Predict the structure.
Amino acid sequence: MVQLTTTTLAGLLTTVQLATAHFSIDYPSWRANSLQSGSGFSQWVYPCAGVPGGLSTTNRTDWPLTGGSLKLDLHHPWTYVFVNLGLGENVTNFNYTLTPNFWNETGNGTLCIPSMPLPADLTVTDGTKASLQVVTLGDSGSALYNCADITFRSNATSLPSSDCANSPGVSYAVVNQEVNGTTTSSSANGTTSGSGNSTGGSGTSGKNSGAAMGVDMVVMTSVVGLVVAFVAGMGL
Ligand SMILES: *[C@@H]1O[C@H](CO)[C@@H](O)[C@H](O)[C@H]1NC(C)=O
Ligand SMILES: *[C@@H]1O[C@H](CO)[C@@H](O)[C@H](O)[C@H]1NC(C)=O
Ligand SMILES: *[C@@H]1O[C@H](CO)[C@@H](O)[C@H](O)[C@H]1NC(C)=O
Ligand SMILES: *[C@@H]1O[C@H](CO)[C@@H](O)[C@H](O)[C@H]1NC(C)=O
Ligand SMILES: *[C@@H]1O[C@H](CO)[C@@H](O)[C@H](O)[C@H]1NC(C)=O
Ligand SMILES: *[C@@H]1O[C@H](CO)[C@@H](O)[C@H](O)[C@H]1NC(C)=O
Ligand SMILES: *[C@@H]1O[C@H](CO)[C@@H](O)[C@H](O)[C@H]1NC(C)=O
Ligand SMILES: *[C@@H]1O[C@H](CO)[C@@H](O)[C@H](O)[C@H]1NC(C)=O
Ligand SMILES: *[C@@H]1O[C@H](CO)[C@@H](O)[C@H](O)[C@H]1NC(C)=O
Ligand SMILES: [Cu+2]
């Protein structure tokens, strides 16, 4: 629809890129440092920033069978966060979501969830390999991606609370979607005091309901649709 010259497009991309910057997964270890200049990776690239998976050098972190810790480093005033999971050694299909209600994170710094509950229909046993995909989405509708590879282990543990604290001012609200579509109310969970103690997460046990997950898949699909439309609109 909108005609863009090559120069305009390049300028626009640069602007968008600077404005949208980046995030990192501090735990479990991400697949590669996608921020490193010269790495050839780009967080704009679905599904994993262009970092190949399933290699013999893949760095896998052991994760508890009931779900493990997730530690992100975020830098925006606010951003939506989605966490997905796919089974296997070389995941192409991240078809489970760990955020049936996605998050609206605010603040600059570390967001650490002591234990991410797994969806009820995800069955894992000692040795099951999987990959996590973290997607952040800003106000421009453009998404950033990073992945981390894990092995579910019965002897794995979550991060100790001393190593899983949110930075001062960092918190997230769960965005609840209604089945009928329109909207979103937020519940405040995951707020921190400035002391460095984390109170994030929606609990350390339990599994998400399948019903909620269905809703999220619809939302996720439309988000992916938007991203695709955005990229297509940019003529890439
Ligand atoms: C693998 O992960 C560990 C733990 O985070 C890290 O210390 C190490 O540097 C990583 N290795 C590679 C090759 O990325
Ligand atoms: C992983 O899957 C991708 C996509 O199917 C494929 O291109 C790649 O070669 C696979 N990597 C390995 C190590 O099997
Ligand atoms: C997810 O995808 C995997 C591999 O493509 C498949 O085996 C599994 O049944 C799928 N699970 C769901 C809930 O769709
Ligand atoms: C997310 O948080 C930002 C900043 O607090 C706010 O402006 C925005 O409306 C929130 N979005 C939702 C869906 O709650
Ligand atoms: C976020 O915090 C880091 C380290 O404290 C600081 O260098 C950076 O400028 C901050 N970024 C924003 C957008 O506030
Ligand atoms: C857990 O078990 C795996 C495989 O049996 C082993 O490689 C790993 O070192 C064990 N981890 C701990 C913390 O004991
Ligand atoms: C969805 O909307 C229909 C028609 O307005 C209403 O009858 C139904 O109860 C709503 N369902 C939910 C889950 O809100
Ligand atoms: C974190 O909370 C624990 C238990 O509530 C408390 O013992 C500890 O001192 C707190 N740590 C910090 C840094 O506030
Ligand atoms: C926050 O999480 C706790 C622990 O799971 C839960 O009991 C509480 O209802 C949640 N609060 C809100 C406002 O969602
Ligand atoms: Cu950024």
